[in-house]
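Side project, low priority. Logging it here so it doesn't get lost.
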Amino acid sequence: METAGVIEPVDGLILRVIVRKAETIRKDFGVMVPVPQDNERMNHAMIKAALLKRSSARNRDGQLDFGFEEVMGKDLETLETFWKDALEKTKANRTVFAQRRLRPEEVLPEWRRQLDLIGDEASIARFVQAACQRLDSPLEPSRQARRFILRNMPPALRERLDLEELDRERMIGFHYPPAPKAHFIHRTHPLVALLADHLLEGALQGTSNLAARCAVTETAEVSTVTTLFLLRLRHQLTASRRGVTKTLMAEETVPLALEGRSNARWIQDAHISRLLEVKPSGNLHPATVSAEIAKAIALLKTHRQTLEDLARQRADTLLQDHRRVREAARDHGSYSVTPSLPVDVIGVYVLLPNSF
């Protein structure tokens, strides 16, 4: 019992047993298990312990010698049960989330492919800078970072930025670690998500020309007419494990390019990224833009089978990747991936050479 802020020897003995048990759990499982909030039962145990003879209040190997088990065992039964339940939960959680059998080298190709899909630091920096430029709020250069400003941002976007506490100017950086006092802007940062949502919504609804779903550009960086298609591929992933079947939806965007028109040639992925960054060299008459877009859409209709073949190929690639990761994790089951057809074309862009 406690008198004038002093812990009596028997009380200290009980506390030492509790601490010793908790320390054993921490060493074995790496977690701290709290004492259950059963004050009444614990108080009863303390009172009974205080009534025992102090002369025999000694412990050996963490156990009480003076009849503690017989006199107080039922009162502290809740404590023991609580600890056992906590241990079992810890073991179960570690079993569920353990990846000790997963070998990194077996899934590195899929990991690198995902990095290419979501974009690296340079891609994020390029997007944010271009988006802010189009929103009439260009990033202001600084010695080690960029200054993000809001004064010319559209009101609707500013309200959404306010909700994410991005309501004031700040220094931002795209490389980790960022410069002192600069905020690190990464792929999942709210600023990136809000800028992307705002531009995409405006393009899909036709309420903004900041991000166009179709465009014609004259550039010196191509030697023949080149048409880019931005595709949205959707796949149904079906997984059956232990008699339970689940269906998930997977989406991806894929750029595809066609060089020429009469003897068109499909361009490989390695060259498409370069085409996405070409610089315009002049202005075009609206009539020319409309005519070229119409030709591109007509060209697209003659190559529908190519788009569907691509969707099936990507579905097969997704299935192989999924199986490889599951096998590496020793997670056995049956899986299938089915493309959702027809393919969605969400963007058409024509590049014209200067001499066209």
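Brief comment: The mean pLDDT is 78.
Revisit when time allows.
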